[in-house]
Amino acid sequence: MPTPRPYALTIAGFDPSAGAGVLADVKAMEASGVYGLAACTALTVQNDVAFERVSWVGLADIQDQIQLLLVRFSIRFIKIGLIESLPVLLALIQWLKAYQPAARIIWDPVLKATAGYEFHAQPDAALLQAICCELALITPNQPEALRLLPAARPEVAAAALAAWCPVLLKGGHAEGDFATDVLLMPEVRHTLASPRLPRGEKHGSGCVLSAAILARLALGDSLPEACRLGKAYTAAFLGSNDTRLGYHSIAKNHDN
Prior knowledge:
three-stranded antiparallel β-sheet
């Protein structure tokens, strides 16, 4: 008999192209050997190259979706993506922690759609600190790090965020032959590099990375190992074809 899979929950937007948001997250989690559950925070009108509009799901409706899952399933690993506002994000995190104090929460700060649509202005620093102090990990790319905490360089902003929670600063927007991510933890710095692919740009790659990391945490890996394996999963996703919508492959090391 296959070993029962741990559960992991994504709380994010619905992308009809299935390249980003809850559909992409569940695909990545399932392919990584975890059973993916989902709650929707927004209905978007988009495809892999165009974003037209978003309709937000209210906090009470998000909570209702999640509450029925929490009654039935043991959920300790949660990822939050696109959400209406940072005050809503903080309220949601506090509500989740009241139900499950041991929950490990990853926030993938979706601040701007690939097609250019902007979701959030620069947040209040005190609000941002309150959010980050509840997180197991935040996964900004370089422009997002600067949006969250304006600084001379993304690395400086990430280091400031790391005073509040672990930070995985994604290097996909940098130049060079390698895409280098940096995991910043208290007094520890891990560098994760992979070759930059010639046609590796994919819609939703940040969603996939954070979901793959969450899956590895649910499977029992340490945070540095989860980030390493999540990046490896994402590299395979980026190299899966020459289109903007990547393919998810079932991991070969899970007999379930």
